[in-house]
Amino acid sequence: MVLLRANTGCFTEGVLEMKKVSFFGKDIPVIYEMDCVVVGGGTGGVAAALSALENNIKTVIVEKTISLGGTQTNSLVSPMMPTNVPRQYINRLITERLQQERIKTDDGTTSCNWFNVEALSYVMEQLIVERGGEILYDANYIDCLKENNKITHIIVNTCEGLGAIHGRTFIDATADALLSRTAGVKTNSGNNEGHNQQVTFRFEMGGIDIATLRKYLLSKNDTYCKIKDSDFFEIAMVQGKGHTLEPLFQKAFNNGDLQQEDLRYFQGFTQPGKPNVMSFNCPHIPNILQTTNPIARSKAVVKGREMIRRLVNFLVNYVPGFQHAFLLREASQLGIRESWRIVGQYVLTEEDYIKRARFTDGIARGDWYIDIHSVKNEEIPKVQFSPGEYYEIPYRSLITFEVDNLIVAGRHISSTFLMQASLRIQPTIRDIGQAAGLACALSVKENIPLNQLDGVALRRQLQLMEEL
Question: What is the value of pTM for the model shown?
């Protein structure tokens, strides 16, 4: 019989007496006891776990799927969007390991960070395991147990039923602020009308003759893709923006092969290490006003799958280079850009974006524009940064008033709707995760609650990491 030793967090043979906690009148086994419990193995969660492990505290990631990476891998969101902010330690660690796996991450022209999802998921997993971290896959977060202002355990559902995980610090990397909300943290969602950003359902196609596709677009004087390296290519079409592919989309629409909703947004990227494959940042699912509604999300899947089939057929029948292409895979989860956001000790705003705000407890930097994919038009500040300009994200936007030992790493940190549309990109989220993991290590070692930790001292520690 194999049981989990609760006080070490590792498997051992034999029968052991396991600790238990009471949950709604049921005795639930404690399957891990850890210094740091990361709920969600996505972009921020993996970076946070690696940062905690680099600082030698016992760490487990609880992940609902069987693949680390979150939207990067399960929603097929690649490449990482460009940024002129220098890559921090954890970001570099992942990129360097991808390169060791013979994945080209640099296109030589843009500041995007490229990857393919299989390589990234594997690399993240190996980096966690090599540092002694634990990963609990196929485990859904259910609820948390608290004593006073501290979380003591989380409850998860596994193949064996309910289990509890005890922790000293907890990182909410769920992207939906699920741990925070169940712990009693105040949250917001959407814009002033409660509308969230657009949902995407990405897909991949194989069998593409990318050389023919590139030749065709260049013959039409297409200037969208600036990349010179032939291993990388990207295409796009937004109706009314003058893109080269728009006449083909319009022709398919006139022939009844596409619908108006298919023409709103189309974008595709090659995948390094996967010849003849492209990943598509579309379709945008129409009329989904609230991504916080589980029924709406389910309907978005059905609608998106229908739209994917139309787009695949269109590409094969209308676009040079796709004649022998085929649908390779659909994302295993929707691309949710925004849902809930915590109300932390500081709410980052679009005014902070405009004035390139600096904070004494600034623990990460952002420079992506306010990138709203809205169902309805938003009034957006028309400000974009020049290289070298940035705003800072304060530690106070990661911590709460309500829970002492909780920190947030992800798109759901404390910010306004508009500001979230800038800070949500993957490079920024990785840096936020790095700060969260280091904060947990300092909290454990110095026995200071996360929401009382000195953000100025944390900033200094992060700067020291970059000097190593």
Answer: 0.93
